[in-house]
Specification:
CATH architecture of the largest domain: 3-Layer(aba) Sandwich
Strand content: 15-25%
Largest sheet: 5 strands, parallel
Helix content: 40-55%
Radius of gyration: 19 Å
CATH class of the largest domain: Alpha Beta
Number of domains: 2
Distance between the termini: 42 Å
Strand order of the largest sheet: 2-1-3-4-5
CATH superfamily of the largest domain: Response regulator
């Protein structure tokens, strides 16, 4: 079975060159020229690897990576970037990237990195992805879309689970409304920011002892939201 690769690169000549070389190695390659179309393609098809430029139109590569990680913890992601700063490399790896290659790069090195990432991904998952999380006496199971408290189970919608996961993965940080809308919804037409408010109200009902005085899910006026867990 051929490995399928999603290549996200807005520079047409470079995209064509990479695609041709990957196909010569026997891979099936789908391309995207901007971040939002990349997410649409990713959600509609199955891939074994994502090669992702950082500087993209519509939505940058870091945001695309974060959105992919909410959907899939296991697929390898290789960043391509013209920036050679340690801060960018650290940020890319921190949000879920597996490897980082700075432009200009040697095509043979790219092919070797792709080969190594695909080889590693065929092994058993190491379990580092966020599959479950405990808040007080309630356990969240992200794969089953449910909150468990003893014998009681609360079912989550997919969007609720994605937003909950994003806030928990960014715990103790303020996440802006704009970032939430791009990362969780990822489309040109966003829902009203009131939709996020309604989700936060639901989370407070699920987890807070006093929803009117939230400990975990806090609103930051004019900016966004924060999940606070000082124990982690």
């Amino acid at each position: 079975m051929k490995h399928r690769i999603l290549l996200v690169e807005d520079e047409l000549s470079l995209s064509d060159t990479i695609k041709l070389n990957l196909e010569l190695e026997g891979y099936t390659v789908q391309t995207a020229k901007d971040g939002k179309s990349a997410l649409r393609i990713f959600k509609g098809e199955r891939f074994n690897l994502v090669i992702l430029d950082v500087m993209l139109p519509e939505m940058d590569g870091f945001t695309v990576c974060e959105a992919i990680r909410l959907e899939n913890n296991e697929i390898p992601i290789l960043f391509l970037t013209a920036k050679n700063s340690s801060a960018d490399r650290i940020n890319g790896l921190k949000i879920g990237g597996d490897d980082y290659l700075t432009k200009p790069f040697n095509l043979e090195e790219l092919l070797l990195r792709v080969q190594n990432l695909l080889r590693r991904s065929t092994k058993a998952s190491d379990g580092n992805g966020l599959l479950e999380y405990q808040i007080a006496d309630k356990k969240i199971n992200f794969s089953q879309l449910e909150i468990i408290q003893g014998e009681d189970v609360i079912r989550l919608t997919r969007k609720e689970a994605l937003l909950l996961k994003l806030l928990i993965e960014r715990r103790n940080e303020v996440v802006s409304r704009e970032h939430i809308l791009e990362t969780v919804w990822g489309y040109d037409i966003y829902p009203s920011t009131r939709t996020i408010d309604n989700f936060i109200v639901s989370f407070r009902k699920y987890f807070e002892k006093d929803p009117g005085n939230p400990q975990f899910f806090q609103s930051v006026r004019g900016i966004g939201y924060r999940f606070v867990d000082l124990m982690r």
